[in-house]
Amino acid sequence: MNAAAAQRPGAELRAAREAAGMSEEQAADALRLAVTVVRAVESNAFQALPAPAYARGYVRAYARLLGLDADALLCGQDLGLGGAPAPRLLASDAKRTFRDLLHERLGWVFGGAALVVGVVASLVLWWAWLADAPADVAEPSPPAAAAASEPAPAATAQAPPIAPAPAATDANDAATPVTGEADAPSGADADAASPSAVMPLSAVGSRLAFTFTEDCWVEVFDRMDRPMHRDLNRAGGTLVLRGQAPLRIKLGNAPGVTLEYDGHAVALAPHTRNRVANLVLE
Q1: 3-state class percentages of the chain: helix first, strand second, coil last, to nearest 5
Q2: What share of the chain in percent tops pLDDT 70?
Q3: Cα dihedral 170, 171, 175, 176 sign
Q4: Is the domain defined by 3-96 classed in CATH 2.40.50.140?
Q5: Interior angle at CA 269, CA 263 and CA 275, nearest 5
Q6: Pairing of strands 247-251, 257-261
Q7: Banded pLDDT at 272 (limits 50, 70, 90)
């Protein structure tokens, strides 16, 4: 073996690295090897490697990095190992850093983070939806249910007089009529009246009486979901309505309102959230 061949392959690898403008540290990072291994290969000190059996694998990997013909470099070279064959191993994972592993698993990291964010966002939206759900339908008061179950008086009997509704205290109350509040005919007039004129009280509908201590927006819908009242009522006023149950009610400022249903007080607090009450009276 002549002197030129004795310098191969380390000298050619070093010359190619320097021609490429690459430092020993950069070559070591690219090969995922220690800098001492790169220096040992360039110096043909293969016996000084931590694992001499992998010397040919190091040379092949280094040659590929620099664009050289690995077979030509290793042709006729026993690398001072006595001609013993070595496995063609590119690089050892023993020197891989945490940064290398992070780069390889970056997609999994971002995918897992996106999944966690999505689950948390779904739980937050679900909780917010539950918080804004309408209040439960109000249970009917026992007296009102009993009154509805009583039979209507005979058509020939004289209907009892019905007290007129309280006078409205503002323009909004005055504009709201009270259906069926007029006195029923009596005596001979009742006998001459048609059956529809002598309408029993239960057929007129349930009576709602609102008293306002603060300004409040009121919406009331009858059993056909037709609006009976939709307006702003002022503090100090009252509102009386009659309609066929179930009656759906929405109060924009529930703490400033008291409500009676067929003469019985209705508790608004269990149906109020953020000062807005939603309830249904049957």
Answers
A1: 40, 15, 40
A2: 60
A3: negative
A4: no
A5: 115
A6: unpaired
A7: very high
DSSP helix/strand/coil, 88: coil
- Adjacency order of strands within the sheet including 216-221: 227-233, 216-221, 247-251, 276-281, 272-273
Q: Are 240 and 209 in contact (CB under 8 A)?
A: yes
Q: Above 80 in pLDDT, residue 27?
A: yes
The two three-digit tokens of residue 207, written as one number: 């009576």
Mean pLDDT estimate for the chain = 74
- Using left for φ > 0, alpha for ψ between -120 and 50, and beta otherwise, residue 92 falls in beta
Instruction: With residue 98 as reference, give the H or E element that holds it.
Output: helix 98-104
- Confidence check: pLDDT of 37 > 70: yes
Q: Which helix (H) or strand (E) holds 109?
A: helix 106-131
Give the domain ranges of the chain: 3-96, 106-132, 142-150+157-281
Residues 6+ away with beta carbon under 8 Å from 46: 40, 52, 55, 79, 80, 81
Q: Which residues pair with 247 in a beta bridge?
A: 281
> Which amino acid is it at 47?
Q
- Give the residues across from 276 on adjacent strands: 273
Give me the phi and psi of 56, to 5 degrees please.
-65, -35
Query: What is the helix (H) or strand (E) element at residue 110, kind and residue range?
Result: helix 106-131
Distances (CA, A) of 11 to 1, 21, 54, 175: 15, 16, 19, 105
- Determine contact, residues 41/10, Cβ cutoff 8 Å: yes
* Residue 234, SS3 per DSSP: coil
Pseudo-torsion of CA 147, 259, 274, 246, nearest 10°? Answer: 30
Q: In whole angstroms, what is the distance from residue 248 CA to residue 166 CA?
A: 22
Among 236, 242, 237, which Cα is nearest to 261's?
A: 242
Instruction: Reply yes or no on whether the pLDDT at 161 is more than 90.
Output: no
42 DSSP assignment? H
Is 122 a residue whose pLDDT tops 70?
yes
